Amino acid sequence: MTKIANNSKILLYKGDLRKEIFNRLRSQPNTERLKKSLIIQELLFKSEKFRKARCVAAYVSMTDEVDTHQIIDESIRMGKVVGVPLTISDAKSGKKDLIISQITDRIRQLEIGPYGIRRPKANEIRPIPYKNIDLVLVPGLSFDIEGNRLGRGKGYYDRFLKKLPKNALTIGLCFDFQIQKSVPTLPHDIPVRMLISN
């Protein structure tokens, strides 16, 4: 009973933290978001691990997140293989899982999907094998200095991150106010290996 009670407390705390960060993200002026996003982008591009990565998986940012649109476009121009996430239903479990689909033209190949997130059009889906992915840019509502991550509660990324090869570098992109001293975790939560913030 104690474990269930503790899990319930963690879930409640996660819910409260999600609301708090959502409010801060939504109240941040767009000019400020884009300015901070540019700083984060420059730090990412200076990273040796990013420069060496041949295959990059990047989330397509929503209007309140660290902007990844320029990161995606510039990575393609650099000659990297670039993939973006797409949710598909698992035939056995019925759960939705993430696959990474290669794109070469963000504007032409993407459309607005569920939750307002841009994803590849049906005729543009080109799955990238997990084993080929060198680096993943991971979204999150909140992170701590250990890399623990608070997502949006669907579990897609945790299931996806478990399938990556051990040498794949996972990087959380976030604004400074999204970093907490400690983020509550459950056994299925997967941390990122690196954080880049403004």
Q: Uncertain segments of ≥5 residues (pLDDT<50)?
A: 1-5
Query: How many DSSP H or I helices?
Result: 6
User: How much is the radius of gyration in Å?
Assistant: 17 Å
* Arrangement of strands in the largest sheet: 3-2-1-6-9-11
Rough outline: globular
What is the second-level CATH architecture?
A: 3-Layer(aba) Sandwich
Integer average pLDDT: 92
Largest beta-sheet characterization? 6 strands, mixed
Lay out the secondary structure.
Elements: H1 2-27, H2 30-46, H3 48-52, E1 55-58, H4 69-77, E2 81-89, E3 96-103, H5 106-109, E4 110-112, E5 118-120, E6 135-138, E7 142-144, E8 149-150, H6 156-162, E9 169-174, E10 179-180, E11 194-197
Parallel strand pairs: 1-2, 1-6, 6-9, 7-10, 9-11
Antiparallel strand pairs: 2-3, 4-5, 7-8
Keywords:
about 200 residues, alpha/beta, Rossmann fold, 6-stranded mixed β-sheet, 3-stranded mixed β-sheet, 6 helices, 11 strands, disordered N terminus
Task: Give your account of this protein's structure.
The structure is a single chain. The protein is α/β, with parallel strands linked by helices and 198 residues long. The protein has one domain: NagB/RpiA/CoA transferase-like (Rossmann fold). Helices cover 34% and strands 24% of the residues. It has a six-stranded mixed β-sheet, sandwiched between helices. Strands 8-7-10 form a three-stranded mixed β-sheet, with helices on one face. A two-stranded antiparallel sheet has the order 4-5. A hairpin with a 6-residue loop joins β2 and β3. The N terminus is likely disordered.
